[in-house]
Structure formats: C-alpha cells, structure tokens
Amino acid sequence: MSVPDLGQQAGIRLYESARGGEFHMSADAARELAASCDRLVERVRQARADAAALTRVSGFPDLPSGRALTAGFEAKGLEYLGMLDAFEQAALRHKAAYLAAGALFHEADAANAAALAAALAETP
Fold first, then answer.
1. Cα 22 to Cα 24: distance, rounded to the nearest angstrom
2. Domains of the chain by residue range
3. Residue 24 CB-half CA count within 13 A
4. Are the C-beta atoms of 96 and 11 separated by less than 8 Å?
5. Residue range 12-68, pLDDT digits in tens
C-alpha cells in the first residue's frame, strides 16, 4: 500500500537543509522538538495497535452487497493504517531534521535511520 505524503518530504528537505548548514537551532530546542516528535510517534503507534481490528470486518451477509460492504470497510481500515504510517514517518523525519539543526548529528543520524526503517516497514 502506498503511503501518502503527510510531511515526510518536508522533513527530508528540512533534514538536508540542516545537514547542509542552512537550518540551525539550539541543541536544547532541538531536543525539546525531538521529544515532541517521540511523543507523537508513540501516540501514532498506539493508535495503529488500537486500529488493527479495522481491517478485519465481519457481520455482513454473504451476498454481493455484503461482500462489497466488507471489502469497502476493510479498504478504509487499510487506508487509515496507511495514514498512521505516514504520520509516523513524517514525525521521525522532522525529529531527524531538528536534531541535525541543533548539531546533534549522532542522534540525528539515529533518528534518520529510524525514519528509513519505518518507511521500509509500512503496515501491510
């Protein structure tokens, strides 16, 4: 499933600007923003865990209309999970950018690696 761009590309551009020396902030501000991103990621992961059942729809009759309703609701559940994936990736990308802007490059590289891992591990 394709994940929509909900800020991931902006996070990548911001990270590249920070690594290129065009975007700066204090290390303290970078850590605070990174912590906010961490909290957002945790909330998104909890929402994903809570929403796992949305893709397992049942209760409609075994008729063409029931099968269509089941498929439609399952597709909406998958779409929601994809949106959560996008939010997680965007938060991780911005975390990496903020840390790089604060010249916390080891932490920024770790955050960037987490963002890449999240992009590769999209919810099926």
1. 7
2. 25-122
3. 3
4. yes
5. 999 999 999 999 999 999 999 999 999 999 999 999 999 988 888 888 888 888 889
